[in-house]
UniProtKB/TrEMBL annotation:
Gene3D superfamilies: HAD superfamily/HAD-like. This is Phosphonatase-like hydrolase. NCBIfam families: PhnX-like (TIGR03351). PANTHER family: PHOSPHOGLYCOLATE PHOSPHATASE, PHOSPHONOACETALDEHYDE HYDROLASE. Coiled coil: none annotated.
Length: 230
């Protein structure tokens, strides 16, 4: 349910997260992380592994290379972990990812109403493209953005601001950000998006989403049209 009233600014663009928001991957992130952690020599059991897993869960939505830089003690080790993570995740994508129920209909309804939709991720652009191809989503959204060429990953505002520039919105207040993590909400807040909707289909629960700046918390992206459309 919303925890504030909807913005009076007409929404022109929705910047929408993928994994956990529009895409379900059934634990593939942690499975791929465990492969990456083992690759760089982190003990397979024990406190260090448990704490690393918890950090990965707490930072869901952030750029994966930045997560590995925070976890490991050198750039070379972080890059090695990131490469191993992407290879492991990519190998699990086929048959391991699916649309969140109602996600395709939501994006279609928003675009039919004249609202642009950009899908974003904390994965690399190459992994994002693999997910898009596995789902057959090449024509679903107006654009797709990933950390790198589109700027820094979440919780920085870069992906939201890049989407706003490409969509040529009249005002950043006309942007809505939708995601399942605190990082999604914080990136929207920092970018100046007036509507920030947290969804409960992914990593973080309502209190964490609200604390990070969510203006609304909804059960699923399927509930977004009721929030944005007449």
């Amino acid at each position: 349910m919303p925890n504030s009233t909807a913005s009076h600014t007409a929404v022109e663009l929705v910047v929408m997260d993928m994994a956990g928001t529009t895409v379900t991957d059934d634990g593939l992130v942690i499975a791929a992380f465990d492969t990456a952690a083992t690759t760089v020599g982190l003990a397979e059991t024990g406190t260090e592994r448990d704490e690393a897993r918890r950090y990965v869960l707490d930072t869901m939505g952030q750029s994966k290379i930045e997560v590995f830089r925070a976890l490991f003690d050198s750039e070379d080790r972080a890059q090695q972990a990131n490469r191993a993570f992407e290879a492991a995740y990519d190998a699990l994508i086929d048959g391991g990812v699916a649309p969140v129920p109602g996600a395709v209909d939501t994006v279609t309804r928003l675009r039919d109403a004249g609202i642009k939709v950009v899908l974003t991720t904390g994965f690399s652009a190459a992994t994002q493209q693999r997910v898009i191809e596995a789902l057959g989503w090449q024509d679903l959204a107006d654009a797709w953005l990933a950390p790198g060429a589109a700027g820094r990953g979440r919780p920085h505002p870069d992906l939201v601001l890049t989407a706003a520039l490409r969509a040529e919105v009249s005002d950043v207040a006309a942007v809505a950000v939708v995601g399942d993590t605190a990082s999604d909400m914080l990136s929207g807040l920092r970018a100046g998006a007036s509507l920030r909707a947290g969804v409960l289909t992914g990593a973080h629960r309502a209190p964490a989403l609200r604390e990070a700046g969510a203006t609304h918390v909804i059960d699923s992206v399927a509930d977004l049209p009721a929030l944005l459309l007449p």
